[in-house]
Amino acid sequence: MQTAVSSTAAQPSSGATPSALAAESTTGSASAIEVQHLAHRYGSRVIYDDLNFTVPAERVVALLGKNGVGKTTLIRLLMGYLKPSGGQCRVLGEPSHALSPATRARIGLLFEGHLAYDFMSIAEIERFYRPFFRRWRRELFYDLVDRLELPRDHKIAHMSCGQRSQVVLGLIFAQDPDLMILDDYSMGLDAGYRRLFLDYLKRYLDQGGKTVFVTSHVVQDMEALVDEVIFLKRGGAVLQLPLAAFREGFRCFAFEQDGSAPPQPDAVIENVDLHGREPLLYTFATREQLTEHLREHWPQVQLGDERAMTLEDAFIGLTGKY
Ligand SMILES: Nc1ncnc2c1ncn2[C@@H]1O[C@H](COP(=O)(O)OP(=O)(O)OP(=O)(O)O)[C@@H](O)[C@H]1O
């Protein structure tokens, strides 16, 4: 069984373990999202059988996972679009399968970047959404969308993918939601519009009282905004910890070895990459802890220098390339 903070690997016996780092993530504040013992399967295919994690209120939390681990499925479950095979989720205090209209209005959902009503024009979609949201901020919608320099009677169906994304984001910011759930926020936006989106997100967060839950393959752009990361692995194992703790505690070392079998992931070694320019080993242990561990269990390994990592390198280092 997984706990709210868990990893597939057993824990090193001492030092900076994933769970020790993860313990720092408990904030004591109310939860915006709670996922408890969640199970879901499509036919006989199990996506998760005991998924547990919490998104604390007023935090920016990124759910990271490789293609196909079940990030979009999770959002469908959170919004009550899918019924889980077991367990439960609560969003803003209500069960996902019974979210009230008032609570739904407090959630800004970016889901696969699509707009259902693409036969409408820019002005029509704004008028259509407005009555559903008490705190509607029309000026935020037009501030974003007018940058596209399209006439307001331009049909959404006749827009490019990135332009539609801009409309979707305008609609979400105009809602002034308490919780934003963003499934793969980059959605075909070019670098400039991605930056613009991040500027808006920052302004939105600066108001205080806001929670953001974002799923992605990587969140390189958002690194400065994210408080916590949740790594979702195939089968539903999760590791949740503050981003700063992950960036400080997760390390990459080059290594050399004699001709015998390469080291394997174990209680201390999270991952080994033999496919790049040089063999690399990933761990939450310090150099001293790792050296001791290697001496005892993998004496054929000569530890080399520590390698600096971008967030993307670290993500791939933890979850593996393939
Ligand atoms: N309706 C469905 N019926 C059967 N299988 C499905 C269905 N929807 C998704 N799947 C499968 O469930 C798994 C998880 O899909 P999901 O879309 O949640 O992954 P994801 O983590 O969002 O992936 P990506 O990063 O590629 O968007 C995938 O293997 C997918 O093929």
TrEMBL record:
GO terms for molecular function: methyltransferase activity. InterPro entries: AAA+_ATPase, ABC_transporter-like_ATP-bd, P-loop_NTPase. Keywords: ATP-binding, Methyltransferase, Nucleotide-binding, Transferase. SUPFAM superfamilies: P-loop containing nucleoside triphosphate hydrolases. Transmembrane segments: none annotated. It comes from the Bacteria. GO terms for biological process: methylation. This is Methyltransferase. The lineage of its organism: Bacteria, Pseudomonadati, Pseudomonadota, Gammaproteobacteria, Chromatiales.
